Each structure stands twice: as C-alpha cells, then as structure tokens.
Amino acid sequence: LLCIPAAAEDGHSLWFRHADNAGMHHGTYSPISVTGAKASNPTIAIAIDELQRAGIPGTTRLVVKKDKKAAPGSYAIECDADGNATIKAPDAIGILYGAYGLIRRHQLGQDYRSVSESPAYGLRVLNHWDNPDGTVERGYAGQSIWKWDELPDSVSPIYKEYARACASVGINAAVLNNVNAKPATLASDNLVKVKAIADELRPYGVQVFLSVNFASPKALGGLPTADPLDPAVQAWWKNKAAEIYRLIPDFGGFLVKANSEGEPGPGDYDRSHSQGANMLADAIAPYGGTIMWRAFVYKPSSPDRAMQAYDEFVPLDGEFRDNVIIQIKNGPVDFQPREPFSPLFGAMPRTAQMIEFQITQEYLGHSNHLVFLAPLFKECLDQQTYRDVGTVTAITAKPRGKGPTAIAGVANIGDDANWCGHDFAQANWYAFGRLAWDPSLSSEQIADEWLRLTFSSDPAFVEPVKQMMLDSREACVNYMMPLGLHHTFAGNHHYGPEPWYYVPGIRLDWTPMYYHKADSAGLGFDRTVATGSGATAQYAEPLASLYENECPMEYLLWFHHPAWTDSLPTDRTVWEELCHRFDLGVQQARGFQKTWDAAQPYVDPERFAAVQDKLKIQTHDAQWWHDACLLYFQDINGLPFPADTERPVYTLSALKKVRIPLGLYGCPTRDMLP
Amino acid sequence: LLCIPAAAEDGHSLWFRHADNAGMHHGTYSPISVTGAKASNPTIAIAIDELQRAGIPGTTRLVVKKDKKAAPGSYAIECDADGNATIKAPDAIGILYGAYGLIRRHQLGQDYRSVSESPAYGLRVLNHWDNPDGTVERGYAGQSIWKWDELPDSVSPIYKEYARACASVGINAAVLNNVNAKPATLASDNLVKVKAIADELRPYGVQVFLSVNFASPKALGGLPTADPLDPAVQAWWKNKAAEIYRLIPDFGGFLVKANSEGEPGPGDYDRSHSQGANMLADAIAPYGGTIMWRAFVYKPSSPDRAMQAYDEFVPLDGEFRDNVIIQIKNGPVDFQPREPFSPLFGAMPRTAQMIEFQITQEYLGHSNHLVFLAPLFKECLDQQTYRDVGTVTAITAKPRGKGPTAIAGVANIGDDANWCGHDFAQANWYAFGRLAWDPSLSSEQIADEWLRLTFSSDPAFVEPVKQMMLDSREACVNYMMPLGLHHTFAGNHHYGPEPWYYVPGIRLDWTPMYYHKADSAGLGFDRTVATGSGATAQYAEPLASLYENECPMEYLLWFHHPAWTDSLPTDRTVWEELCHRFDLGVQQARGFQKTWDAAQPYVDPERFAAVQDKLKIQTHDAQWWHDACLLYFQDINGLPFPADTERPVYTLSALKKVRIPLGLYGCPTRDMLP
User: Fold this and answer.
1) How many CA atoms are closer than 13 Å to the CA of B581, on its beta-carbon side?
2) Considering only CB atoms, which chain A residues are within 8 Å of B579?
3) Backbone phi, then psi, for A390, in 5-degree steps?
4) Which among B616, B643, B673 has the least Cβ separation from residue A594?
5) Does pTM top 0.95 for this prediction?
C-alpha cells in the first residue's frame, strides 16, 4: 500500500520517497554485518544507514575484499536461501553502490539473488554551470546549491543530500563551477570553501573538480602572461595544484573551456589546445588529477560552425597527455533538441574522449517542458561511428593510456525544493547517472525505475506515464525543430521561437538564419560535399555517403537544403512534412495533459498540480512554436498549409513583438496574456 | 468568368461587387422604359442606373401603378418570351426594390419570370448607436459614418452608398443616433444636419428617425420638468415636432430608451411608460410619425432581471397610442449568444410590438469573430409563443390599430473600408435586411445569396463556406456560453470571458455570478416556479411547463440550477456536457480556419487575408473562453475534466490578470503576448 506522507510533497525526496518512508515505518532495524572494513568507515556507515532506512528484510552482510581486477565501485549481490543478502565489493564505495542497488531492486520488486555490476565509465561527472554569485547559467531550478557566501563556516545539509542522490545512481564527480570560470575560483580563500564541500561529498564517493580560467596566472597570479610554455606560468599552476591537493587530497582535476566564446586559452599565445592542456595536465599529474578539455570551439568567420571542432582537434590526435580527456558535446553544434552525433567521436583514436550531455534543458523548454532525455542520450551513445571501436559508448568507455574514462552531464540542479524545477526533470538527473553507469540500459527501463521509485508502481499509473516520458523528446523535436532544424531559438534565453532573430552587427552564427537558411527555394543547411559546406565528409563511411545522398529524415535539414516542394518518403513534400510534424508535436503535448490528468489518483496533490501546471505551459509553448515557425516559413515560401494542418492562432507580426523578459535566475517571465 | 478588379479589394463594395463590375464591363446600356412615373423621379432614376450598371439584358420596363391594396415597396417582375423584364410596383420605391430584386436574381442565375414580393414589416429599421462625437457604442468597425462635424455644409458620399446598401435589401428606416441620446440631438443646429442626411437617404426610400432623450425639455428646452403630463412639456415636444417636420416632412419619428440604465423617463415623475410614450406620440401623430419605445428595463433590486420587462409592460397593454410600438429585444436579458425569446412577445395583444435584434456583435466576439446571425434571428422569429397569433414573426408583423409594423436591428456599420470590421459581418447586415423583408427565408438561402453576391458562385467555394457560416453561431455558443449560460463576459467591453468578474459595490445584475450562479452544488439560474424566480411562468403553456420540467438542453442553465453531476439525455453529466461543448466550440473554430484556407483560390488576396486573420483571433479567443470558463467552474466544483476534454493551456490565475484595454473606438486592444 502506498504511504502518503502527511507533509506536503514538494518533490525534495527525489527517488528516495518510498525507500525513506519504508524505513520510517519499519520500527526495528534489520541486523547488518561488515567484513573487510570498519563499520565506522564513513562510506560503509552510510550504506548501513541506507539499508536500514529502506527496511531491507533479513540480515545483510557487507563484504569488502580488495580486487585489483575489479573496477572501483563495482559490486555483487548474492542471497542465501533465506533471502539474506550479501554485498561484495572491492572498496567501500562499491558497498555503498551495492546498497543503493539492493534498495532499488527491493523497492522495485526485482530479483537480486545474483547481481554483478561494474560501471562503464571511470568518471561519471556532473558539470555545474554555477557562478560565484549564486546564479546558475542555463539553470532553471533556482539559485546554486553551493552557498559560497556561507562557506566554509556554515555547511549546508544540502551538500550531503546532493551527494547521496548522486551516489545512489553512481555519479562520482562534480565540477562545482561554471565552465565560464572566474579566475577567483582558484583564490586561496575560495579553495578553503571548495574543501568544505569536498569533505561533505567524499563519503558518498563524489570527487570534486573545478572549472578553471586559463588566464588565472595573469588575472589571479599577477603574472604578465598565461602562455602555457612560459616557465613562470607552469610554475604557478604547479604551485596552485600543490595548494589544492594539500587541502583536498582526492581532488579530481580541472575542466577547461579555452578559446571558446571569448574565454582565454592557449590560442591567445599561438599555442595549441594540446600545449595548453598538457601544461595543466603536468601540473596535476603527480596527484592523479585529470584535465577535461572542452572541444566546444567555433568562430564567427567559419562558414559552418558544425565543422570547426573536428577541424581543430583531429590534427592534435596523439599529442595529449594520458590524463587529458577531450570533452565533446554529443552533437557538433550545441545541445539542440536533435543533432547528429559529433564526428569527432572516434576520429582521435590516440586521444581520450568523453561525451558532454546537457541535462539542464537550455534548448528543450527549460524546466517548463516535460522532456525525458534518456532517448536523446542513448541516440548518441548507441550511435555506430564506423570508427575505432565502434559506437560512441565504446569509444568513450575505452581507456586510452593510463587515464580514466569519463562521461559528463551539465546539471539541472538548483536550490528549488524539488531540485530541478520540474518534477520530471529529476528523471533526467537520474537517467544520466544510470546511463553513465550502464549505457546499455534502455530508456524504458530507466523511466520505469524512476517512475516507480518516485511516484507509484501501480501499472495503471506507470504504463501511460512511462509512454508519455518515452514520447516526450520526440514531441519536443516535433513542435520545436523537426526534420533536422536547429537553433531557431530566440536570442539569449533559448526558450521560445525566433527563427527571424537578428540584430544589426550580431555574429551571424548567433542568428537562426545561419542555421535554417530558409529562402524561397527551400530550407536547411546544405552541408553536403557536392554543393554545401562538406560536413558530411567529416563522418566515416558509410555514414558520409548516407548523410550526403540518402539522408535520414531526422537529419534532413541539418545536412541538406531541399526545395519546399521536394517529395519525401512519407509522400509529403518538405513543407507538408514540416507542417505535419509541428502539428503532431502540438497534438502530443495536448495528449500529455490528458495522460497526466488520468494519473491524478496515483499522485500526491502537490506534485500532481505542479506537473499539471507545467504541462499547460508546455502545450501553450508548443502552439507558440508551431505558429511562429510555420508562419515565418510560410512568409518565405508562400505555400498554403496542408488541409489537415491545424491553423495558427497567432499572427507573425504579433509573435515578432514578443519579448520575454528574463526573470529571476534567468528564467523567462511567464506572466502572459492570452 | 469572375472579374477580379485591378484595385485592391477592401470589401467596400459589399454584395454589389459583381453587379457593379458587370456594368463596368458592359459598354452599352440596355434600354429601359418607364410608365406611370417620370424617369427623372430620383428613386426611379436610381433604379434605371442600377439596372444598367448590372448589365441586365434586353429591354426592361418599369411600371408604376398605384394600388391601395399593395404594401408600399411591394413589386412584381414578369418577363416576355424574349426575356425582357417588366417591374411593376405601386410606388417608386417598389420599382427600386424590384430593380434590386431583379439584379439579385440575375446575378444568382435565378428565375425571375414570375416574381411577386411584398415586405413582411412596414418599417425595417437600423438602429445606429452612434454618438455625436463620432464614436459608436458597441461599434467595432471604426467611427460613425455620420460626420456631424462636417454637416450640413459637407455631405459625405458614404450616405448614399449606405442608403443604396440598405435599399438593396429592403431596409427603409434608420435611427441615426444612440439610444443613449444626448438632449442636443434635437437642437436646431443639429436638426439641419439631420435634414442633410435625410435628403441623401430619401431617394433610396430610407426614412430617418432619431433617438431622443426624454429629459430634452429640461436639458435642452430649459423647462423645470420633463413630466409628460405637464402642458409646457407637451407643448415643447409639439413645437419640436413641428420644427423637425418643417425640415424633414417624411421624418420617421423617435426611438426612446426611458428609465433604463440611468436614462431619464416618465418614471422620474411617477408616470408610466404609456404616459411617456403617448405624450411623444401625440406630438408627432399629426405628421404620421411613430414612437418606438424600448422595453429594455431592469433594476438592481430585481431578483431576476429577465422578468422585469414583462412585469412592467404587460399591465400597460392597451394603453398605448396606435403610433407607439414597443421595441423588445429578442431575449429577456440582453443580446446574449443564446437566449430564450422574450415572454413579452404576444403578451400584449392590444399593443404594437416590434423586435430589436443586435446586428453588431457586442456579445458575439465583436467584429473579430465570424458569427452568421441569421440562425439567431430566425430562432426568435420562428418561435411559437402559443399566444395571440402564434410565432414572434406573426405577432410583430400583424398591424395593431392604424400604426405601422416594424422590426429593428442595431447596426454593425462604421467608417471602416469594409463597413463592418469583419468581411463576414456584412452578411449580418444583409441577413437582417432580407429577413425584415421576408422572415420566411432560410438561413441557408440568405448565406447562399450573400456568398455568391459577395465572393464567388463556384460551388467548391460556396458549399463549405456556407456550412461554416451556418455552423458559426452554434460554435460561438459552444465556446462562449453553452447549455443556456449567459453573461459570463468581462466587465464593460463584453468581449472576453470573466465569469469571476466582480468589483466591490457593483450592481449584482452587472456581474456574471448573478447569471451563472455557480456553486459547489451546481450551475445555472433557477428560474422555475417550483424553486426559483418563477420566470418560466411568464411563458404560455405548454412552454411554461416545458421550461419548468423538461427544459431543452439549449436553455438548461438559463432556467435551472442542476447539480454538476446530474445526468443529461446525452448520457453525460452537466459538467461533462459543459466540457464537451466548450471543447466542441474550439474544434469548430479550428475547423473554420481550415475551411477558409481551402477557399483561398476563390477569394481575392486582400479579403482572404483579412478573414484569415480574424479567424485566427476567433480560434485564439475560443481557447481563451474554453480555458477561462472550464478552469473557473472546475475551481468551484473540484471535478476532473472528462478524459477526452482538451486541457487548458492557461492558468486561472494568469487569466484573471488579463485586462484588455479598450482601444480606439472601444474595441479591445489585441496586441497580445502568447
């Protein structure tokens, strides 16, 4: 029977809701024995506490047995004939992961008599784009959870809650601050605060990283240069590394956004990415630290922004230190609702590569739209590259040299009571963690787990709501950017549609026209070798030919500029298919509202109402996208809507006047008129 | 073949578009002979001109032959074996009506070899609610066409165009000014201006009336009172009448709104409506003038506003002079999207009664919504009252004493290029005129005529667009006020939904709650004898019992306060049926958009785009109504939406914040955000 707590359900308990309640109602705790480690080990102690709170029946044995062949954090579960479980692991964190794995299976009613798990990636990282002033870039769930102004004297209990949630899904690293990093990040008084957080996260196995500003030696250290070949610069970083590791012996390392969107980097001194990255890598190598170096580079002069990372990084293959990982966004542009995978994956076989997903929905309706991202993550992870060891997962999960493997997601976490702004956005945090641990999990399996842990296991609830989750990303693509359209967003906030966005003097690659290239002839970015930018050639065969000649509809307007009236395999023209898909997206959003309303009997009133309100906004926005894009494109092509396309209710001129002010925390203000 | 004029089609040519073009392209004019009148008679001259402009083939003979048995304006058309037509009429205006009738039939390809027509009503009146400052109360088509500040020196050509349009559908009287009349209306310098207009309208057979302020003898004449029994007051009105008739010998008479919504009246002196009306009637009787005395009375203290006109006027039956007609709105409240007919009709058998329709869409989406009103008009006209001579038409078309019969519509005309704001609103002007002439015409026939005269005769255009017109009033009822709901409008502008509208101190009968009476138990105004106000008893049997006991669904919430969960003949509950109908209305509005888009090949681009834009607004508003009403009622009843009901996209709190500013000419400003 479902236990509804008396307190208002604000979503803060995440996917622990029933586990924690089970313990609360259990009364007496089951006995737990520990072998191979002290029960007082902070991580073991947490495992014990979690198992008892969850009301795991019988006697549970925790067995730590060192095993050099076993990956850190791996675990096994076995049960005796009476159902008493034994968790075996090579380290304490493996025990904790095993405890969470046992609790999850117990909650879900799954068999755990013979379980063996090992994480696919060594580093499973959340990137927080949190600023020192407490704001979160592209954050839609309140202010930063890191309370820098209170630290180090006051240590918020949220840090442990955060670490617990991360550990429960296997996340083991956090980059605490924005990739657009301030030099003061590395100031001594700030490092003391970082240490305080690291101390809180450590028992949960969450390692702390920092984003660093490449110009820190100048801006913070007072040196005349930040040239990576300058000995004084190298010495400054070595000293800084020593200072950090004195405070935080298990410090993870640095994440670097260099020579990207105005940030400083080695290019400022005519040095390469590898020269910059290696200099930092050398500084932290003695301590086992890792450099994550972002490949997110583009410049206004490029005729095709999608090609630049590949062009810039592939020649550097083999030049990077073992403890450098190139962090590559899943797609070649920037976290769009759908992109083809980045052609960089597999194109640098002698270099460690990691994938960067965006969990926060910068380009998918912020925390207003229900968009379950597991299908987006898996679309990239499962992609066959026809290079190196094959899929994106295989390439990024394969160790290169002595360095770790890693996977990162830009966090969607803030200090909102429910952590993520939208109750269902929690599922994306969950899904990222689960996939970082095991990329072979299906989206359906993850949605199923999360729904049952977070809401209810009643099939009458789970089945339709799970289907809504599984359909939601495609629905978003449909009502925002079907057929491979990308970056038709409003300037700055990336929330609503502005396919017409342009201000005099702006970088063209910051305008939608650069990407959709709509004209009277047709629509889409011609990236073919035959007539376009040639980006298709950045892919290995047979993908290059496929994208060039028989492009899947999903990427049609990404790689091609077909005529509006060209016929598609659906027997619709490009224009008709576009109308059809925008329309479908609106219908899907409307359907989600009905699905959710039918779930009301299974959900506490607070979260029911919160999600219901968000779904309203989503449907409203779907119509807005539908109208804005179709009216704008129709204004260009002069074609009528197909007979079965639902007509716009807004005028193009009215929509062009819409200016959504960025409200508190950068979220668009939604005090709308109908 | 359709002739598209080179000039932009702004809709100004109304239903003359093809007729006028035909003449333009004809070159030589057919011969026309006149018998029994001079060809120079201004009205005959117009008839000749119209026939020639329309390119009527052959020789046309116009024969005026006095006939005391024939109604003024009646006509007959006959043709000889060669197709040469003869129009016979007892007067010149009959010849003009015959000419328009011939042209219409010719345009429509109808047989006119044996036609005989006679108008059902003697006075077919447009009421203009135009103010002396050029604004139009409840006008949504620009400023008044009457340019008082230019008159009498400058006489706009629009007056003749207006009169032509009226005459072409048989309208023969115009009340030039607002029923909320200023005393200065009767000032001598204003009467000279009225004369200038009357001179323009006269050749088209359109008689001029004025709305008068009952307190004019005080406010304008300087008398200490306006008491109708005061000899000085009576003398003032007699002198004023003499002054008017010296200027305008065929002046029609006065329209009076007395003791209604703050206007002065005989009640100010404890005199009855009949005492007030008769005093005015006596003043203009010598000149053949008519008093139209409005029955639109209600007071804040009344427990049921719908009952007051009946209660106040029925006792006065038989007291009015022959040249007084009681002007009764079609329904007992105020021009709602749907009302039952006023129980006053037929309840004063010794008194002349006329119906007052509202052509301007004060309560039906202004000139933004496509709502063809013929079905609304006919619903009332065809209504069997079970009193007197039967239907509302029969009752109002039957002469009482020596006075005329009459029918009135509040005009939807302004100085917008297309006259009515919405191209399809022209159809309501047209429909009113056609029904005032012949109430037996069907809505379908009128829509068919109007569409073909105004747009195109191609069946591929006419059939679907006609169906849209015929469905449009019911669609509006569905998305605004289904099941007998009424007056859930926003305060003041009566445009959008505000079922919650209330401001402290306001008259309760000016708030929606007074009418919908939604509470946790149910919805609707209990007007039964058994438990409510007893308004059902104002109807004759079997209607009284029908409304009391087996109320048609259309009037359910008008007469009853059923429980939300009561079952209806549709096997839905009241709440479910309400949701279903609001939903249906939204779907219908969306369907209109598709229907109109399919009509694009048959319509000039200007009017196509104008109507398309209006349909966007209509669909948008339909959603607004749907969301506002369903969310508001749901907030009261706490019931879930039925599974198949489309969910709101707005929140109740956001909708409650909507304040639509009244823009220029009193139209709501629609510079909306999505």
Assistant:
1) 22
2) none
3) 115, -105
4) B643
5) no
